[in-house]
Amino acid sequence: MGKKSEFKISFNLFDIIIIIVVIALAAGFAVFQMRSGSSGSQAGMKTVQYQVEITGLTAGTGEMIREGDKIVDKVKKNGMGTVVSSEFYPMTKEVVDLETGNTLYNEVPDEYSALITIEAECTDTESALTTDGGFVVRAGEDASIIGPGYSGGGFIVNVMRGEGDE
């Protein structure tokens, strides 16, 4: 009747290794969360203009692209910004001359390209520019756009951050 229950904790080497790994993972996660949280607060909003070249358009599309149109990403439905200006011109395609090996640029009949300058408020971090709609702006990025009455696919060919930097 006079039993005392004693609880002894004893650790072997395997238990100690597991405890150390768990503590290290928790510390790494905490450091990662604090670092990513602080970079978000340093990021500022700025107005950015970028140019998208879309190809494979029909003849009447150039008249539909107007200054002030709201542009949306066709795939993810993210807001991309507002049209500032546009150029409409005949589409060209690279062709290799098999006799000389030279690359030639020939016009494609009945197809046109448009160079659209878009302005958007972007969050500027060290790794990317992201519009307030969530679209990531990087030169060379694939861009599928929808505007009022037109759509097309192409690439971002130029990003102008402002203050004279391109």
Describe, in plain words, how this protein is organized in 3D:
This protein has helices at residues 13-42, 61-64, and strands at residues 44-57, 70-73, 79-96, 103-124, 129-131, 136-137, 142-147, 150-160. By secondary structure, the protein is an alpha+beta fold. The chain has 2 domains: 13-42; 44-160, no CATH class. It starts with 12 loop residues before the first helix and ends in a 6-residue tail after the last strand.
How would you summarize the topology of this molecule?
Elements: H1 13-42, E1 44-57, H2 61-64, E2 70-73, E3 79-96, E4 103-124, E5 129-131, E6 136-137, E7 142-147, E8 150-160
Antiparallel strand pairs: 1-4, 1-8, 2-3, 2-7, 3-4, 4-5, 5-6, 7-8
Entry keywords:
single chain, 166 residues, alpha+beta, 2 domains, six-stranded antiparallel β-barrel, 48% strand
List segments where confidence is low: pLDDT < 50 over at least 5 consecutive residues: 38-42
> How would you state the average pLDDT, rounded?
84
Termini separation (Å)? 86 Å
* Tally of alpha and pi helices: 2
Biggest sheet strand order reads 1-4-3-2-7-8
- Please write the string of helix (H) and strand (E) elements: HEHEEEEEEE
Number of domains: 2
**Which oligomeric form is depicted?**
single chain
The helical percent reads 10-25%
Radius of gyration, in angstroms, nearest whole number: 28 Å
Q: How much of the residues is beta strand, in percent?
A: over 45%
Number of strands: 8
- Shape descriptor reads elongated
Label the structural class: alpha+beta
Biggest beta-sheet profile: 6 strands, antiparallel, barrel
